[in-house]
Write a structure and sequence with these properties.
CATH superfamily of the largest domain: 2-enoyl-CoA Hydratase, Chain A, domain 1
Order of helices and strands: HEHEHEHEEHHEHEHEHHHHHHHEEEEE
Number of strands: 13
CATH class of the largest domain: Alpha Beta
Oligomer: single chain
CATH topology of the largest domain: 2-enoyl-CoA Hydratase, Chain A, domain 1
Length: 459
Amino acid sequence: MVIPFFSSSYKQHSWWRLVTASLLFLLTLISSNTIAQNPKVYVIDVREEISPGMARKLSRGMDEAQKLKSDLVILNINTYGGLLEAADSMRTRILNAPFPVIAFIDNNAASAGALISIACNRIYMSGGANMGAATVVDETGEPLPDKYQSYMRSIMRSTAEKRGRDPKIAEAMVDPRTYIPGVNDSDKVLTFTTTEAIANGYCEGQAGNINDVLKAEGLENAKLSYFKPTLVDRIISFFINPAVSGVLLLIILGGIYFELQTPGIGFPLLASAVAALLYFVPLYLEGLAENWEILLALVGFVLIVVELFVWPGFGIAGISGIALVVVSFAFSMVGNKGFDFDLVSGRQLTIAFLTVIMSMIASVVIAFLTGRSILTSNRFKKMVLSDTLDTQSGYVASVSGIDSFVGADGVAATLLRPGGKVLIGGKMFDAMADSGYIEMDSKILVVAVRGNTLIVSKN
């Protein structure tokens, strides 16, 4: 009696297990079908020059897409190219993405833009779009030496191979010598139109916009999310503009000059420090300025201060400091990788150095022409400590009898630019030139007293 009862119970349990398993299967099927019908698609615009800033934005966009558990990323591309190092960084990030990445070329994907597009899993192009012309050139459009071209040919081939595309076609986009019958049989670098790209397996189809791309992928009901640059991104883009960088250089150098004319930590030095931060921080975040370049600038400024206050005169410290500052500012403007400048053209370095040198010359000229009027203006006096602590106001000098030296002759014991030391009657006193600077060993005349400092002029 036990066995039949056990058999009946076993059959009953098996029936419920079958029903439960069927329900779970249906729920799973419904759930997966819902996901398939409503995938998450993340769109990143690549519609500017390929630079370290653009590479940083792509990386941030990829991270955000991953956090949102996106099923697909679309790059909305329209660019004439940019820096090879930045493009290589973007290519690597695309190839290693945990989700498919689709390129939608809306008009242009030239040079570095072509490399980024080829790195994507699939490519769609708008009508009249172009892709190719990936020869590495300088700012004038002239091709760089073959070592640059060789590297570009290599990464174009390897990227095409990774995505199952003809690597020889990718190489032809860099090297006009690459001969492909019926595809590239001229002496020009290869550039595909939309139709040509489709015919040669470098484009999955033509699309007018992102919605057309989604339709072609069977994702009409996709939930779209877009990468949006933050306020910080926009601020950084503003400050790395070459024109703005030039103005910041003027403020840095001009602030140091005016601070030397009005000893004491005041507004000029603060303006210079803020300008230095606004100059270096955006370049650092963009991947242009590196730690050692910023350190060079700091060492340079220290050497200049040492030259002015510790070892007066124009010697090794001052020259070395100025040289380090110029080199630091110039190197921070180009896309070198550490001490590797292989991907930086000579023209880029020349432009960077000229920008810094011209800014320094301009700051000197402006300071020479306007320095005295600015320092003596009422508005400037309100921003710096310039009041004379005289005895009529109730102040007493800590050095007894210092007022009696007004009209006395002496010798400049150090360079006064404008502060320094003077020797009067065999005694050393703090002094400041009433205007400009006074060379060491020059004869001086005390014209006034300000606190414990003698105000002197060249006698």
